[in-house]
């Protein structure tokens, strides 16, 4: 396996907050909710040119070549998720974005600290929240969807 030269990508990591207790207490409802969650995420990811290179349980790891596309995908996905009537399995998805250099092998497996940073940013978010690092914000062309705004906290 020959490694390609490093490239800068923006990573979107997502996770359903508190999914394990929901699976334990409402497995049938969670199955349906997770199927819908996955479809909504994939729709937003595909619409903005992302590559979901890993899905583990209800967590998505997505790479984008463009930071603005990654932010737009996150916003579209979060808006779609927040408008759902989840019934017996109310889910809340946390999202984190980070941009940085990675090494990519021929098998499209990414390596480098940027992946760990994206995971940590996602872990710091609460359900229904999107967090982005300064590295991602610096790459944005400031195109945000209607009603979208950046906030520095």
**Total beta strands:** 6
Spans of at least 5 consecutive residues whose pLDDT stays below 50 are: none
Order of helices and strands: EHHEEHEEHEH
Indicate the radius of gyration in whole angstroms.
Answer: 15 Å
As a percent range, the share of strand residues is 25-35%
Which class do the helix and strand fractions yield? alpha+beta
Helix share, percent: 40-55%
Q: What is the approximate shape?
A: globular
Indicate the mean pLDDT.
90
Question: Main sheet?
Answer: 6 strands, mixed
From the structure provided, what is the oligomeric state, counting identical versus distinct chains? single chain
How many helices?
5
Separation of the first and last Cα atoms = 42 Å
Topology (elements, then pairings):
Elements: E1 7-16, H1 19-25, H2 27-47, E2 51-56, E3 59-64, H3 67-82, E4 93-104, E5 110-111, H4 113-124, E6 130-132, H5 134-139
Parallel strand pairs: 4-6
Antiparallel strand pairs: 1-3, 1-4, 2-3, 4-5
Task: Using brief descriptors, characterize the structure shown.
alpha+beta, 153 residues
Protein model, in words:
It is a single chain. This protein has helices spanning 19-25, 27-47, 67-82, 113-124, 134-139, and strands at 7-16, 51-56, 59-64, 93-104, 110-111, 130-132. By secondary structure, the chain is an alpha+beta fold. The mean pLDDT is 90. Strands 1, 2, 3, 4, 5 and 6 form a six-stranded mixed β-sheet that branches.
